[in-house]
Amino acid sequence: MNPARRLDLIDRPSHRDPSMMRTLLAVTAVAACLAATACGIRPATEGRDRGTLVIDTTNYPTTLDPGKQYDADTYSVYRNVFDQLLRRNPRTGATVPWIATSWRQSDPTTWTFAIRPGMTFSDGSPVTAADAAFSINRILDKKYASQQFANFSMISKATAQGSTLTVRTTVPSPTLLSYLTTLSVVPQKYVSQVGDEKFAAKPIGSGPYTVVSASAGTEVHLRANPHWWGPTPQVRDAVFRAVPNVASRVVDLQSRKADLAVNLTPDAADQVKRDPKLAVLSTPTERIAYLAFNTIKGGAANDPRVRRAIAAAIDYPALIKNLQRGYAKPVNSLVTPLAFGYDKRLPVNTHDPALARRLIAEAGAKGATVVMATSPSFNPQIVQAIQADLGTVGLKVQIRGTDQATYLKKVQDPGHDWGAVRFGRWSCSCLDTDGVVYPLFHTGEIWSSYHSATFDNLVERARQVTDRGKRAALYDSVFQLLAHDLPGVGLFQDYAIYGANARVRWTPDAQESFYLDTMKVRRR
Amino acid sequence: MRTTAVPATPRYVAGRVGQALLALFGVVTIVFFALRLSGDPARLLVPDGAKASDVARVRERLGLSDSLWHQYATFLGHAVRGDLGYSYVQNRPATDLLAERIPYTANLAVAALVLSLLFGVTVGVITALRRGRWQERVLMPIVLAGQSMPAFWTGLLLVLLFSVGLRWLPSTGYDGPLSLVLPSVTLASLSAAAIARVTRGAVLEQLSQDYVRTARAKGAGTWRLVTRHLARNAAIPVLTVGALELANLLGGAVVTEVIFAWPGLGQLTVQSVAARDFPVVQAIVVLASAVYVVVNLGTDLLYGVIDRRVAGAVQGGLS
Predict the structure, then answer these.
(1) Which 3-state string (H, E, C) describes A459-515?
(2) A179-213 residue pLDDT tens
(3) Which residue of B88, B160, B171, B236 to mutate against A (max A Cβ within 10 Å)?
């Protein structure tokens, strides 16, 4: 631009300032832009009742189709919309009737279930044995590609006749009933009619609640189903919100935006406790925190004496008191007292650094480097505490952290080249020793870096015997063998920690079921 | 007059769009192969107790057991028809998932940009005009503090004050326009600093120019000097930084979205990368690259509108 002209412009008096006009235009454009984008979002509280129970979960459910996924954030929501074939007694863990009122094992591989009469789905259609059979068979169907397939793969086929459901297994299965407590029954007719994708978007179930709305990524609104066969729940409306950050879930409780928050850390629970109008609800679960060793390519950890030394070097009481802040219990093996097969006669794991030092000297492993594989999914404070414990008895721990996908790829690789020790948490949602020790240590399983023909034989037999006494005896031998070989060591039994408004009356259970129909809210 | 100088010749635009498509193709290809090197989505999808055969089954269903080149060819074939695949995790089209998140991200990005421009430009101009005076000594530390505090810290402090303490504003989620305030202030506190510093630099540079002295000599007041003379000349660097910030913000503000449970693209990106949900990650990459390219192209064209010297250079360079 010619500077002379610019000067010229400055000198000329003008009534209408063009730059001012453009500023105005720009502001209008931005405002229009804001308004236009704001139109794309509906306020979450729109159409929400004042008495609505607001629940902060970690993630938005990956689907509302109960046949697909089985992760806590997903089933916490859909198990309120669907009834399960069986439920568990929240106190004892025993399998109790739900959709199935009774069952019997007619031969070692055949189970029959009587279906509760008079139940309906929320669209009015009856719940039948055919619906139950359909719900099982669709999970077994390759094309449907359920992520729960592995839990039901022992079933060869489910059939229905009148009000009787028949389930056949490939081998006698002692854990069938356990997994059937996680089976939600879906309406065959509706699902076949609309297809899986539409069903996930607009699910219809027979459970105590129906889906009012689900805005993807944000929240799911449930309302009590007036046609439910059980007692009318006190909580009429409930909203599940996805709040991934634990500190944000705590401030939601503190600012009274949320009434209940799941998956708190022990630190967050301490914060919640400081507010007199909030409460911490917690319960021991079947989840176990453990260390697993690489006994095949673990370097120093290939020697069972080093593994025993590591187990003796860990300051279990300090982990429970300082890091878990009391939200954990000591254990004696890799399963919790809740699991079938638990052996209460075994001694609780103890901290004995002198023994650890002796074992390390005996194995000639003093100063040896032990590689610990981990990922952000595992509490780094615990990993570091273990590193420090092992350091005091003369082992150098090198922590090798990667993200979870890479971690799984390494740890589950058949080459077993992932390091010497890893920290993890395990829950099979089956309350059974089989669901823990088989996948962790049976030769060839993706998690196993341990090989023992005796162990393999024992757990294979235990998984095909339905007689409880015989199974218990087999697991006694299993735990004796594990205590000797020590391919892994239990650190503590983990708690589920919830934060709640003090008005919420609810007792969480060990299975981490999240049944709204068991919750009550005291009126203000 | 002014309109005749707009440089948007069809040839120029076509050239830029061609470059953009090439860049997009390159980015998508790199991401396609890099993702497949780094982890197996099937292992994350199966339950804990799954067997190797279960993992293989899932891999096969997802088409991950085919050769890489076959997967790549299939992906490109579908992509040119606008089909970016189904989410492995949610079993829904990746483009649907993105479409749900875009309004949230756009809303937050625009609000944050407006705030940071208002605050950043004002502070930048004031600190330049009052260099070395108390105004600069008060404002610059505030701006620097905003920039140096990480979003998870700023965000939580704001929530503690305004949601927990005063109960004026919602802590998380979207409950109407008020919900926008805290997340956009958190985001703006980061980008305002950059804009303030660039503005200050640009204005300082202009202040030493002859035309400013002339304008002053002719009796132009501060307001007139800023709005009539400095604004246009100092605008280009500010616009550049603003555009980059906008492109960044539109890609999704990961930390801020997580703190405020804001279901935008940032959260989706983190979750999809963690789950190795390849189709969704690829769709996000396509979208983010497209946004970058469009915003940059738009900025280049705007330069010409603001300063015709640039327009001339661009036209001269291409014709």
Answers:
(1) HHHHCCCCCHHHHHHHHHHHHHHHHHHCCEEEEEEEEEEEEEECCEECCCCCCCCCC
(2) 999 999 999 999 999 999 899 989 999 999 999 99
(3) B171
